[in-house]
Write a structure and sequence with these properties.
The structure is a single chain. This protein is mostly helical. Helix 1 packs parallel to helix 11, helix 2 packs antiparallel against helix 8 and helix 5 runs antiparallel to helix 10.
Length: 304
């Protein structure tokens, strides 16, 4: 097998992982909406992130994976853990509390726009024809979905969700920019641990002791799903995907998440879909399909 064929095979497997990631993250938004009926964002994320981190550390130990962090890379993982875990987890919860879950999902997944800009500036990743088309469709779809929110002002959910998007994009590009070489499982585990520590400090500062018991049965199930799948499994999948695909491809491919999340919001949370919603979702789905169905291509090399 040639080097190009080997890379195409790895990229193909990574695109399959994107589908699993979409299910884990997309349904996690619904679980968060359920848990927030009884828990505050700080208490919810305190439990979810601790469970997610424990899950990944246990998986690494039981499977024999090394958790060793190469010299000098711990500070980079800490930066990413703050932006990609602590900031994202807390603000996404506040976004859901201050607005519809479907809207929080869509604005948060403007992430590929910011990731594409940062990748161009910091990594030298250029848009080929297919990814350029996908990016254009992504921008159009998000614009159609977000525009109705601005007709009556600028609700808090927009601030929270946009900050989530930029923080997630920066963490993703930052790890590639710094040429971090830690293995995906170790990277995800340590990011979750650092993120949990940031959240724990914030929880004690703003709320005191987190409320973790007693809880209703549906809240317990929601927290377990969030911790095991929405946090633990999903973060491992994300960094495994980013390590195998160009950042822009991985980011736009992950736009399947809001399609699943918003559809689930309509089904389980009874949030109504408008005509702009439907048009925007179609454009986003096509953008993701352009990336997921693209044949394996050589990874663009960053500028020196």
């Amino acid at each position: 097998m040639s080097q190009f064929e080997a890379h195409a095979s790895v990229a193909g497997k990574a695109k399959v992982l994107v589908l699993f990631l979409a299910l884990a993250w997309g349904l996690s938004w619904i679980a968060v909406a359920v848990a927030l009926r009884e828990l505050s964002p700080w208490s919810l994320r305190f439990m979810g992130c601790s469970l997610g981190a424990a899950t990944l550390f246990a998986a690494a130990i039981l499977s024999g994976h090394s958790l060793k962090v190469p010299r000098g890379e711990a500070k980079h993982i800490m930066v990413a853990g703050f932006c990609n875990v602590a900031l994202f987890q807390i603000l996404s919860s506040f976004a859901q509390m201050s607005g519809a879950t479907s809207r929080a999902i869509i604005i948060t997944y403007s992430m590929p726009i910011w990731a594409t800009i940062l990748s161009w500036l910091l990594l030298g990743e250029r848009l080929d024809r297919i990814r350029g088309l996908a990016f254009a469709l992504c921008v159009a779809g998000l614009a159609i979905l977000v525009y109705p929110l601005f007709t009556d002002g600028f609700p808090p959910t927009v601030y929270y969700s946009l900050t989530c998007a930029v923080g997630w994009a920066f963490a993703t590009v930052y790890m590639k920019w710094m040429k971090v070489t830690v293995e995906p499982l170790a990277n995800a585990a340590w990011q979750l641990l650092f993120g949990f520590l940031f959240i724990a400090v914030g929880a004690f500062v703003f709320e005191g002791l987190p409320h973790i018991w007693p809880l209703q049965g549906q809240t317990i199930l929601a927290v377990l799903f969030i911790g095991l799948f929405g946090v633990g499994l999903a973060h491992f999948l994300w960094w495994a995907i980013v390590g195998r695909l160009p950042t822009t491809t991985a980011s736009i491919g992950a736009l399947l998440v809001p399609v699943i999340g918003v559809t689930a919001s309509a089904l389980f949370l009874h949030e109504r879909l408008s005509i702009p919603d439907i048009i925007g979702f179609v454009l986003i789905f096509v953008a993701a399909a352009c990336v997921l169905l693209q044949p394996g291509t050589r990874r663009p090399e960053p500028r020196a």
